[in-house]
Amino acid sequence: MKAKQIVQIIGSIILCQLAGLLGSLFTVGAIDSWYQALDKPFFNPPSWVFGPVWLILYTFMGIALYLLWARTQKLRKRHESKNLVFLFLIHLVFNAIWSPIFFGMHQIGFAFVIILAMVGSLIYIMYKVWDIDRRIAYILMPYLAWISFASILNLSIWILN
Fold first, then answer.
1. Contacts within 8 Å (CB) and 24+ apart, 41-46
2. Between helices 108-129 and 79-99, what is the axis angle to 10°?
3. Which residue in 20, 62, 117, 150 has the fewest CB atoms around it within 10 Å?
4. Mean of pLDDT over the chain
5. What does the pLDDT look like over 92-137, one tens digit per residue?
């Protein structure tokens, strides 16, 4: 791997980790206060699980973003792959705003709409990259599983509260 590629992959991972960092700014303060007071379903994981899981998932997302971006450089004539990078970045914005909406604004229902947009856009991205580079879809599968679970958790908390 060339130095330029290493910088690009690290930059992609950092970009995705920054989305997580933004979310954590709103999450940390709410965990022991507002979130603790909510009624939660029996399948709600302990709070300590979320940090390590998200750290790993944001790293996977960064690798997927790098592979997608690298593929667009090879396929300069294929506008679709460039559009997928843009869609991935839009998806990352949805990801970044979920925590401020859920934990910061306490808007559980609106957060559910956002997480549905996350799930839908990720499924679309994975479907579209399947023919471009299946590795990207495979790397994103654990993330899809987690946000699908998180959407069920979000809905359950909304219903219970």
1. 41/153, 41/156, 41/157, 41/160, 43/153, 43/156, 44/153, 44/156, 44/157
2. 160
3. 117
4. 93
5. 999 999 999 999 999 999 999 999 999 999 999 999 999 889 999 9
Q: Quick one: DSSP state of residue 17?
A: H
Q: Quick one: fold of 3-160?
A: Ferritin (1.20.1260)
- Are residues 128 and 84 in contact, defined by beta-carbon separation less than 8 angstroms? yes
pLDDT at residue 77, rounded to an integer: 52
Q: What's the predicted TM-score (pTM) here?
A: 0.92
The two tokens of residue 57 are 């998932």
Between CA 35 and CA 60 the distance in angstroms is 27
pLDDT in tens, 23-37: 898 888 888 899 999
